[in-house]
């Protein structure tokens, strides 16, 4: 029995652990420097929200998202991170989370939702194609870090 | 004399017009459906902020941005749109806006800032390279629209 629900502050330790698991999968654990204390502070500041999948009291998957804005379309929910613990994959849990996420986006009055996927992550790309998502390949990301 | 300042509600008509100009440049005016009324409502809901460049009472450039979250790094300011009216380009106005934007990101406690650029937009890519930005080419965008 898997429960899909809005995440709370109490879920942040599990969310933080799942982000670490995804960072390892994306070969970038050394890039993961935000602490659990950062998550608590920024969650309380209203900067992000989560949806979690829970089984027998354990969080086994999550979507982390926030409101953004498309200057062309209007309100846009952004899916920053989306992960199911590896041993629970291929059971449809990701689909349950994603469906709840899309419902949340529409409940928040969004015109669209957006996210990113690494070009070599074939299972993820296939999942999104199955959702009839548009996959755009012509945009590059720019970024500047302020960390010393 | 160019003034760089935080944008207000009164600047939204000019901001909306500049977004249209950028959409035309990106060959996508038909994709631009958010109305000025949407901008008023969503600005008042706190979903986005702007920095504008003003000369002789006219807004000639702007950056539109909002707070997002990097699960790896923490608070991340996102630059959604950034445009200088075509007849005012190559005068350093974009640099003034971008510098003010970076200062705003740091004032808001952000660890980094991120944005996107179309792979064929060479002048924009060159500008960002000059800022010592990292340009990532391995991420694809996924999106789902809820519009009927």
Overall description:
- With 148 residues, the first copy, chain A, is of the alpha+beta class.
- The first copy, chain A, has one domain (3-130): Gcn5-related N-acetyltransferase (GNAT) (Aminopeptidase, 3-Layer(aba) Sandwich), CATH 3.40.630.30.
- Helices cover 32% and strands 35% of the residues of chain A.
- Chain A has 4 helices and 7 strands.
- Chain A has helices at 12-25, 36-44, 93-107, 122-130; strands at 3-6, 49-55, 58-70, 74-84, 112-118, 134-136, 139-145.
- Chain A has a 5-stranded mixed sheet, with helices on both faces.
- The longest helix of chain A is centred in the last third of the chain and has 15 residues, at 93-107.
- The termini of chain A are far apart.
- Strand 6 of chain A pairs antiparallel with strand 7 (139-145) of chain B.
Low-confidence segments of chain A, given as residue ranges, are: none
Q: Can you give the helix content of chain A as a percent range?
A: 25-40%
How far is the first residue's CA from the last residue's CA of chain A?
Answer: 46 Å
| Gyration radius from CA atoms of chain A, angstroms | 15 Å
CATH superfamily of chain A: Gcn5-related N-acetyltransferase (GNAT)
The total strand number of chain A stands at 7
* CATH-defined fold name of chain A: Aminopeptidase
Order of helices and strands of chain A: EHHEEEHEHEE
Summing up helix and strand content along with how strands pair, one would put the structural category of chain A as alpha+beta
Whole-number count of domains of chain A: 1
